[in-house]
TrEMBL record:
Source organism per UniProt: Paraglaciecola psychrophila 170
InterPro entries, sorted: DUF3297
Pfam families registered for this protein in UniProt: DUF3297 (PF11730)
Superkingdom assignment: Bacteria
Name of the protein in question: Glutathione peroxidase
Length: 59
């Protein structure tokens, strides 16, 4: 069981590997990534939801 946590999980979104994914849902088909410019009132980047085909893999 511990071997599962030793691997990093990668995300393919619409066939492209994404490295900046904060949250994802494979069954609903969305990922949340930080916005490059927009910040919230605490100075943290806003999360943008993108919809498409999501696949997870061990890297």
């Amino acid at each position: 069981m511990e071997e599962i946590f030793e691997h990093n999980v990668g995300i393919l979104f619409n066939g492209k590997e994404r490295t900046n994914v904060e949250e994802y849902c494979i069954s609903e088909g969305w990922v949340k990534i930080p916005s490059p410019k927009a910040l919230d009132r605490r100075g943290q980047p806003l999360l943008v939801t993108l919809k498409g085909t999501v696949e997870a893999f061990y890297s």
